[in-house]
Amino acid sequence: MSAGHTAATTRGLVTPGLAETTGRVILEARALRKSYRTGAAQLVVLAAVDLKLVEGEMVAIMAPSGAGKSTLLHLLAALDTPTSGTVYFDSKPIESNAPAAVAQFRNRAVGFVWQRHHLLPDFTAIENVALPLLLRGDSAEGSRRIAGQWLNEVGLSARTEHRTGELSGGEQQRVAIARALVTQPAILLADEPTGDLDEQNAVAVFDLIERLHRAHRLTSLIATHNVALAGRCDRVMALEQGVLKLRGVGPSKMGSTSGGEKS
To answer: What is the pTM of this model?
Structure first.
């Protein structure tokens, strides 16, 4: 990317083009649209979203509440279906797969972290993390062993047998991250993963996501309203009026640390 192009993209919004991504595209959205019928009117949440995620990069999406960030992430994870347009994983359209293959994509290719942890309250931390492995048919013993390894990796080896209500908000989100990654997915999709946390815990959780992203060579897409945290990603996209645009590039693309705005 040229210095002139970098300066232009960091000053304002431009529609993302093909030249902005190089390398193997692992997840892609083409002309993605999502609308809902409300009486006689039609509510358009996503108008025409184009997005390419290159293997190994971390991308942030910024938008105010209600702008469609969650909807977009749900479509990319095959948790919802678009009104029109297509999502591709490793150059293959997801929607053309049989239901069993789509379920396998959700379980094995994508790890999803919600703003609210969505842990099962009657389960312990290790049981919550092991659940995706059990659902795909792994043994109980093997699932617990791998879940324990992931809880250790997120710094919760001493909390494996604690139920959700016995964990702090930051600990609950760490368990949710471990659960998202326990199947060793290629892609991490995180929907406001620090939105319910205080500033100290938000930074700690983002530090953890960033470390795991690099250690496990993930491709990550993070929806956030925190400008400072978004600025640490490789690219920052803005979702405005249902269209995704490039807002700027992060330190790793610019070669220096960029300044942050106040959220």
So the answer is: 0.83
